Amino acid sequence: MQGKKRLGILDQIVAKDKVRxxxxxxxxxxxxxKGFKATSIEEIAEKAGVTIxxxxxxxxxxxxxxxxxxxDMLNIFKENLISQLKDIEDPExxxxxxxxxxxxxxxxxxxxxxxxxxxxxxxxKASKSKIMEMEVxxxxxxxxxxxDGIKKGIFRxxxxxxxxxxxxxxxxxxxxxxxxxxxxxxIDDYVDMQMKFxxxxxxx
Length: 204
What we know:
The protein is mostly helical. It is built from 10 helices and no strands. Helix 5 (about 90-110) packs across helix 6 and helix 8 (about 160-175) runs antiparallel to helix 10. The chain has 2 domains: about 1-60, Homeodomain-like (Arc Repressor Mutant, subunit A), CATH 1.10.10; about 60-200, Tetracycline Repressor, domain 2.
Protein backbone atom coordinates (compact mmCIF):
# COMPACT_ATOMS: atom_id res chain seq x y z
CA MET A 1 0.00 0.00 0.00
CA GLN A 2 1.40 3.34 -1.00
CA GLY A 3 2.04 5.90 1.67
CA LYS A 4 0.15 9.16 1.85
CA LYS A 5 1.37 11.63 -0.75
CA ARG A 6 3.35 14.48 0.79
CA LEU A 7 2.18 17.98 0.01
CA GLY A 8 4.46 20.03 -2.20
CA ILE A 9 5.44 23.60 -1.26
CA LEU A 10 2.70 25.13 -3.42
CA ASP A 11 0.09 22.75 -1.97
CA GLN A 12 1.13 23.71 1.54
CA ILE A 13 0.82 27.42 0.74
CA VAL A 14 -2.63 26.93 -0.83
CA ALA A 15 -3.74 24.84 2.18
CA LYS A 16 -2.55 27.56 4.59
CA ASP A 17 -4.40 30.23 2.64
CA LYS A 18 -7.60 28.16 2.75
CA VAL A 19 -7.31 27.60 6.51
CA ARG A 20 -6.61 31.29 7.08
CA UNK A 21 -9.68 32.24 5.03
CA UNK A 22 -11.88 29.78 6.93
CA UNK A 23 -10.80 31.35 10.22
CA UNK A 24 -11.44 34.88 8.95
CA UNK A 25 -14.90 34.01 7.60
CA UNK A 26 -15.89 32.10 10.75
CA UNK A 27 -14.73 34.90 13.04
CA UNK A 28 -16.55 37.54 10.98
CA UNK A 29 -19.81 35.59 11.12
CA UNK A 30 -19.59 34.88 14.84
CA UNK A 31 -18.59 38.43 15.74
CA UNK A 32 -21.54 39.79 13.76
CA UNK A 33 -23.98 37.40 15.47
CA LYS A 34 -22.65 37.17 19.02
CA GLY A 35 -20.38 40.15 19.43
CA PHE A 36 -16.63 40.44 19.88
CA LYS A 37 -16.41 39.77 23.62
CA ALA A 38 -18.90 36.88 23.63
CA THR A 39 -17.03 34.93 20.97
CA SER A 40 -14.17 32.64 21.98
CA ILE A 41 -11.28 31.44 19.84
CA GLU A 42 -12.50 27.89 20.52
CA GLU A 43 -15.86 28.76 18.91
CA ILE A 44 -14.09 30.29 15.93
CA ALA A 45 -12.02 27.12 15.50
CA GLU A 46 -15.14 24.94 15.66
CA LYS A 47 -17.04 27.13 13.20
CA ALA A 48 -14.08 27.12 10.80
CA GLY A 49 -13.71 23.35 11.07
CA VAL A 50 -10.11 23.76 12.22
CA THR A 51 -8.46 22.35 15.32
CA ILE A 52 -7.68 24.73 18.18
CA UNK A 53 -3.88 24.19 17.95
CA UNK A 54 -3.95 25.00 14.23
CA UNK A 55 -6.11 28.08 14.89
CA UNK A 56 -3.54 29.32 17.40
CA UNK A 57 -0.87 29.07 14.70
CA UNK A 58 -2.68 31.89 12.90
CA UNK A 59 -3.96 33.90 15.84
CA UNK A 60 -2.96 34.32 19.46
CA UNK A 61 -5.89 36.51 20.45
CA UNK A 62 -9.12 37.94 19.04
CA UNK A 63 -7.52 41.29 18.20
CA UNK A 64 -5.29 39.50 15.71
CA UNK A 65 -8.39 38.18 13.95
CA UNK A 66 -9.62 41.73 13.40
CA UNK A 67 -6.24 42.52 11.86
CA UNK A 68 -6.60 39.48 9.57
CA UNK A 69 -10.05 40.68 8.51
CA UNK A 70 -8.64 44.09 7.55
CA UNK A 71 -5.73 42.44 5.74
CA ASP A 72 -8.15 40.21 3.86
CA MET A 73 -10.19 43.15 2.54
CA LEU A 74 -7.07 45.08 1.58
CA ASN A 75 -5.52 42.08 -0.17
CA ILE A 76 -8.68 41.38 -2.20
CA PHE A 77 -8.64 44.99 -3.37
CA LYS A 78 -4.91 45.10 -4.16
CA GLU A 79 -4.81 41.78 -6.01
CA ASN A 80 -7.75 42.71 -8.23
CA LEU A 81 -6.44 46.24 -8.78
CA ILE A 82 -3.04 45.07 -9.99
CA SER A 83 -4.61 42.87 -12.65
CA GLN A 84 -7.12 45.52 -13.76
CA LEU A 85 -4.60 48.37 -14.01
CA LYS A 86 -2.14 46.43 -16.12
CA ASP A 87 -1.02 48.45 -19.17
CA ILE A 88 -3.22 51.44 -18.24
CA GLU A 89 -1.34 54.77 -18.15
CA ASP A 90 -4.14 57.36 -17.98
CA PRO A 91 -4.48 58.54 -14.33
CA GLU A 92 -8.18 59.36 -14.70
CA UNK A 93 -8.96 55.88 -16.00
CA UNK A 94 -6.76 54.29 -13.33
CA UNK A 95 -8.51 56.21 -10.57
CA UNK A 96 -11.95 55.33 -11.96
CA UNK A 97 -11.07 51.64 -11.94
CA UNK A 98 -9.60 51.84 -8.42
CA UNK A 99 -12.64 53.69 -7.04
CA UNK A 100 -15.14 51.33 -8.64
CA UNK A 101 -13.25 48.25 -7.47
CA UNK A 102 -12.84 49.49 -3.89
CA UNK A 103 -16.51 50.42 -3.58
CA UNK A 104 -17.56 47.00 -4.89
CA UNK A 105 -15.14 45.07 -2.68
CA UNK A 106 -16.58 46.84 0.36
CA UNK A 107 -20.09 46.13 -0.86
CA UNK A 108 -19.24 42.42 -0.99
CA UNK A 109 -17.52 42.60 2.41
CA UNK A 110 -19.95 44.98 4.09
CA UNK A 111 -20.47 42.87 7.22
CA UNK A 112 -16.72 42.95 7.80
CA UNK A 113 -16.63 46.72 7.27
CA UNK A 114 -19.33 47.20 9.92
CA UNK A 115 -17.46 44.88 12.24
CA UNK A 116 -14.28 46.94 11.93
CA UNK A 117 -16.15 50.10 12.87
CA UNK A 118 -18.02 48.50 15.75
CA UNK A 119 -15.12 46.63 17.34
CA UNK A 120 -12.00 48.65 16.56
CA UNK A 121 -12.08 50.24 20.02
CA UNK A 122 -11.78 46.76 21.57
CA UNK A 123 -8.47 45.97 19.86
CA UNK A 124 -5.12 45.89 21.61
CA LYS A 125 -2.57 48.61 20.87
CA ALA A 126 -0.48 46.50 18.46
CA SER A 127 -3.50 45.51 16.36
CA LYS A 128 -4.79 49.09 16.24
CA SER A 129 -1.40 50.28 15.03
CA LYS A 130 -1.25 47.59 12.35
CA ILE A 131 -4.74 48.41 11.09
CA MET A 132 -3.86 52.11 10.93
CA GLU A 133 -0.75 51.24 8.90
CA MET A 134 -2.89 49.26 6.46
CA GLU A 135 -5.32 52.16 6.17
CA VAL A 136 -2.47 54.51 5.29
CA UNK A 137 -1.24 51.94 2.73
CA UNK A 138 -4.71 51.90 1.17
CA UNK A 139 -4.79 55.70 1.11
CA UNK A 140 -1.46 55.76 -0.71
CA UNK A 141 -2.84 53.59 -3.51
CA UNK A 142 -5.36 56.33 -4.32
CA UNK A 143 -2.85 59.06 -3.49
CA UNK A 144 -0.22 57.82 -5.94
CA UNK A 145 -2.74 57.82 -8.77
CA UNK A 146 -3.97 61.32 -7.88
CA UNK A 147 -0.40 62.63 -7.66
CA ASP A 148 0.34 61.20 -11.09
CA GLY A 149 -2.74 62.95 -12.42
CA ILE A 150 -1.62 66.26 -10.90
CA LYS A 151 1.84 65.94 -12.47
CA LYS A 152 0.28 65.24 -15.88
CA GLY A 153 -2.01 68.24 -15.59
CA ILE A 154 -5.23 66.20 -15.47
CA PHE A 155 -6.13 66.80 -11.81
CA ARG A 156 -6.07 69.99 -9.77
CA UNK A 157 -3.24 70.67 -7.34
CA UNK A 158 -5.12 69.61 -4.20
CA UNK A 159 -4.35 68.03 -0.83
CA UNK A 160 -3.75 64.45 -1.97
CA UNK A 161 -4.04 62.92 1.51
CA UNK A 162 -7.45 64.50 2.15
CA UNK A 163 -8.68 63.57 -1.34
CA UNK A 164 -7.61 59.96 -0.82
CA UNK A 165 -9.40 59.70 2.50
CA UNK A 166 -12.49 61.29 0.98
CA UNK A 167 -12.63 58.37 -1.45
CA UNK A 168 -12.20 55.84 1.36
CA UNK A 169 -14.93 57.40 3.49
CA UNK A 170 -17.38 57.63 0.58
CA UNK A 171 -16.86 53.90 0.04
CA UNK A 172 -17.43 53.20 3.74
CA UNK A 173 -20.60 55.28 3.70
CA UNK A 174 -22.28 52.69 1.48
CA UNK A 175 -21.80 50.07 4.20
CA UNK A 176 -22.48 52.33 7.17
CA UNK A 177 -25.63 53.94 5.73
CA UNK A 178 -26.93 51.11 3.60
CA UNK A 179 -30.13 50.97 5.67
CA UNK A 180 -31.04 54.32 4.09
CA UNK A 181 -29.22 54.39 0.74
CA UNK A 182 -30.42 51.01 -0.47
CA UNK A 183 -34.03 52.13 -0.36
CA UNK A 184 -33.45 53.97 -3.64
CA UNK A 185 -29.95 53.20 -4.95
CA UNK A 186 -28.19 50.09 -6.24
CA ILE A 187 -24.43 49.73 -5.82
CA ASP A 188 -24.09 50.66 -9.52
CA ASP A 189 -26.10 53.85 -8.96
CA TYR A 190 -24.02 54.72 -5.92
CA VAL A 191 -20.68 54.13 -7.66
CA ASP A 192 -21.73 56.23 -10.67
CA MET A 193 -22.98 59.07 -8.47
CA GLN A 194 -19.88 59.20 -6.29
CA MET A 195 -17.56 58.79 -9.28
CA LYS A 196 -19.01 61.95 -10.84
CA PHE A 197 -18.70 63.77 -7.51
CA UNK A 198 -15.06 62.74 -7.00
CA UNK A 199 -14.00 63.51 -10.56
CA UNK A 200 -15.71 66.89 -10.54
CA UNK A 201 -13.66 67.78 -7.45
CA UNK A 202 -10.40 66.54 -8.96
CA UNK A 203 -10.46 67.44 -12.64
CA UNK A 204 -9.36 70.80 -13.92
